[in-house]
Amino acid sequence: MLNTEVIELSTYKKRVQLIDGLRGFSLVGIVLANMLIFQYGLFGESALHLFGIKGADMAFHSFLEVTVVGSFMPIFAFMFGFGMIKLSESLKTRELRPKCHLARRFLLLFIIGLLHSTFLWEGDILTFYGITGFLLLLFLNRKPKTLFIWATILLTGAGLLGLPASDPSDPLAAPSQEMINYIVQSQDVYGNGSYTEIKDFRNNADPFGEMDKNFILLALVLAPVITLPMFLLGMRSARIGTFDDPPAMRRTYSHRAAFLIPVGLLLKAYGVLAPQLGVESWPGTGIGTTLGGMLLALGYIYAFALLYTGSGRAALMARFEAVGRLSLTNYLMQSVICTTIFYGYGLGLFGRAGVFVGALIALAVYCIQLWLSPVYLKKFSSGPVEYVLRIWTYLSWRGQPRKKKRKQRTLLESEANSLEPDGAAANR
User: How buried is residue 254: exposed, middle or buried, by Cβ count under 10 Å (0-12/13-18/19+)?
Assistant: First the structure.
């Protein structure tokens, strides 16, 4: 019996470590992908020719587009769905209402994201996650089979969106003159402006013409189709226990990673390289963006999980886990550090460092977090932003779930005692 309990405790610990590690691992790809936005802007990162990027730097950008961009943020989405189910289960065991607590959590995420995008950086994803969280409440009590069906339908829809061939003569296929003017102006404002000037430009400058606004409206409508599958698959994995016993799932992880990583890379490579080779009119060039990124993200998840199927774990894994435990704080700190490096009120390297050097800077920022996160957790149990989120979620200054009042149970017990013979109640 004791041996069984030890094995169960070890398995539970591995699951927790794996989940934290995945969150930490996703942040290295997120900061690499976000570096393109930190350095070239939300719209400029897809028009690098306006910054004079060419040659080896452009080739490295293509490498990042295939292997990193669009394939690490989905890991974060997967873990968001996974964590949502685990939190819901924890609340249920305490006889608390999961939807009320989760709704409060998503509301604060939305507010933090709104503040983040307004006062610091335009590439925020927390606002979107907060909104998506409310949509996911509709799936909270659904069976794993239902979650899988919906995820499959939406993945198929995402793939179909990428199938039509693009038309180079279509005005929507190229940036409008308004967009080009915006990107050119952003080089001066972000690279040389003060904090106030950059904030004003970010919140008030309009990069869209009328045609672009219609396109953006369509993109906002279709966004859930492209992003929701990863949230749902994360929820399903939590339901069926995909990561409950990593050693027992070694073969499953291995087979899935061996299939998903090559397929994802091929789809993304086709989508990235086809336009560069002059065959953007071929069908399916958009499938790398709409489907390939998610498939590659799933492959990365299972490949990372393989690292936890052995008897031991490397010291680097412990550092990934520490970064993951502070994932929200670390994500926001990446914005603070990188905007200070690239914006005019800091070092002013916006559009000047180059893609490769920018990637090295991003990796340096992440390495600092790998070093500092374990040091921080030796003194504190959670990050400051995570702690505020817990306080608001549980409406408790301790950041812990409140114990449910058992007034009704007490009344029932009193009534039962009153019905017992006098001696029975006394002898109990």
Answer: middle
Helix, strand, coil % over all residues of the chain, rounded to 5: 75, 0, 25
Lowest mean pLDDT segment, chosen from 4-8, 65-69, 92-96, 167-171: 4-8
Burial class (CB in 10 A: 0-12, 13-18, 19+), 169: exposed
pTM of the predicted protein model: 0.88
Residue type, 253: Y
Task: Find the radius of gyration of the CA atoms of the chain.
Answer: 24
Find out whether 191 and 352 touch, Cβ atoms under 8 Å.
yes
Q: Residue 263 is encoded by which pair of tokens? A: 């397929």
CB 234 within 8 A of CB 80: yes
- Asked if pLDDT for residue 213 goes beyond 70, the answer is no
Are the C-beta atoms of residues 261 and 296 closer than 8 Å to each other? yes
List Cβ neighbours of 217 (8 Å cut-off, separation of 6 or more): none
The whole-number pLDDT of residue 418 equals 42
> What are the backbone angles phi and psi of residue 308, rounded to the nearest 5°?
-105, 10
Residue 150 CA, chain-centre distance (Å), reads: 20
Is 116:335 a contact under the CB 8 Å cutoff?
yes
The string of DSSP codes covering 288-323 is: IIIIIHHHHHHHHHHHHHHTTSSS---HHHHHHHHH
What pLDDT was estimated at residue 7?
44
